[in-house]
Structure formats: structure tokens, C-alpha cells
Write a structure and sequence with these properties.
The chain has about 210 residues and is an all-alpha fold. Helix content is about 70%, strand content about 0%.
Length: about 210
């Protein structure tokens, strides 16, 4: 790690992550390189290696930030809203992920590559945020559905979180994919992030509204 104030270190880390995020809007994970990221930062490309050793580590940091933003949104809702019906909770959770499409995109397409291409300490930093997201959703269930059993809450968590990995590919498809589905005669209904998430959450909660 280079010498300098913690504020400078954090500012440069954020600049690198922001550069990666900007490129990801128009380029694929495979197309993005350390060189490409360095080209749109304010310091030399080789300086990036003082903060991240691989592009996978940069993407993992971006995904960590996305989880932290999602967590903050859920916590803000918990502080603001004391009670919810099942329909209201499904609506809230669906909207929260609709606003974090990038979170879903990264985790569905590049999660394995990021984790295998990152150092253990970087992976641990990410897992802290991931674990906190699970605890936050569990806290939501505790607050809004106190009558749910421990087993029911655990079933929700261990169904919903793996389910999240598949949301983006179902909600965002290319014209090539649409054409292939049509030519293959697959009767497929395209749905939004909100619709997919809402339907899943309502089924997991079950029962009345």
C-alpha cells in the first residue's frame, strides 16, 4: 500500500472503482482490463496495483459497495416504517433490488471469476458486506413478521439469496436471445426485476396479504 493519508488512499480506491463502474456500462467484464481502467483515472495505470492486484478485486469492491448501498436502503426503510403487510414487504424488497440492477448484473455474470481472482483479504472484506446483507434481510423479517418461525425465516433467506443470482439474466435479454427463444418455440414471458422479485417474495411469504 502506498504512503499517504487514509483519506487519499480511500479516494484513490473509490476513483478506481468508479472508473470500473463507468466502463461496465458499455463494456463486458472480459473486455475491461487494468489498462482500460487506468486510462480514465487521474493517476498512472501502474499505480492501480498499489490498491488492487487484479481487475477481479476491483469488481469485487464494486459489488461490495452495491451490497452496502442495498443494506443502507433496507435499514432506512426499517427505521421509517414500523409495520408492513406481506404485499407491502414484497413491494419494498422488489423496489430495493430494482434500484440496484448493477448489483444483480455483477453477481449473476461475474461472481465466480471475481472471488477466484481476488486475494483472501479482499474476499473477506466482501464477505463482511454480503453477510451483513443477509443479517439485514433477516432483521426485516424479524421486524415485519414476528410470527414467522426461525425455520421459516431461514427458509426465506436460503431461498431468496440464491434466487437473486438469476434475476438479472431473466430481466435483461439481448435481441439475439429473444430471437433464439422465438425460433426455438419457447413460450417465455419476459418480466422486470420488480415483477420477478415481487412474485418470488410473495410466494415465499405465503398465506394472506
Amino acid at each position: 500500500m502506498p504512503k499517504g493519508s487514509p483519506q487519499l488512499t480511500e479516494a484513490r480506491r473509490e476513483e478506481i472503482i468508479n472508473a470500473c463502474e463507468k466502463l461496465y456500462q458499455t463494456m463486458s467484464f472480459k473486455e475491461i482490463t487494468i489498462k482500460e481502467i487506468g486510462n480514465i483515472t487521474s493517476f498512472t495505470r501502474t499505480s492501480i496495483y498499489n490498491y488492487f492486484q487484479t481487475k477481479e478485486e476491483i469488481f469485487l469492491a464494486l459489488l461490495k459497495r452495491e451490497y452496502e448501498l442495498w443494506i443502507a436502503s433496507l435499514r432506512e426503510t426499517m427505521e421509517r416504517v414500523d409495520m408492513m403487510t406481506k404485499d407491502e414487504f414484497a413491494d419494498m424488497l422488489a423496489h430495493s433490488l430494482e434500484e440496484r440492477a448493477q448489483l444483480l448484473k455483477i453477481m449473476s455474470m461475474n461472481h465466480y471469476d471475481m472471488e477466484t481472482g481476488s486475494r483472501p483479504e479482499r474476499l473477506k472484506e466482501f464477505k463482511v458486506a454480503y453477510g451483513e446483507s443477509i443479517r439485514t434481510v433477516m432483521a426485516c423479517l424479524h421486524q415485519y413478521f414476528p410470527d414467522m418461525t426461525v425455520e421459516q425465516k431461514q427458509d426465506f433467506i436460503y431461498t431468496f439469496f440464491p434466487f437473486m443470482f438469476g434475476i438479472y439474466p431473466y430481466a435483461f435479454v439481448t435481441e439475439k436471445q429473444r430471437t433464439a427463444m422465438e425460433e426455438a418455440g419457447v413460450n417465455y414471458v419476459f418480466m422486470t426485476i420488480y415483477e420477478i422479485t415481487y412474485n418470488c417474495v410473495r410466494k415465499l411469504l405465503g398465506g394472506d396479504k
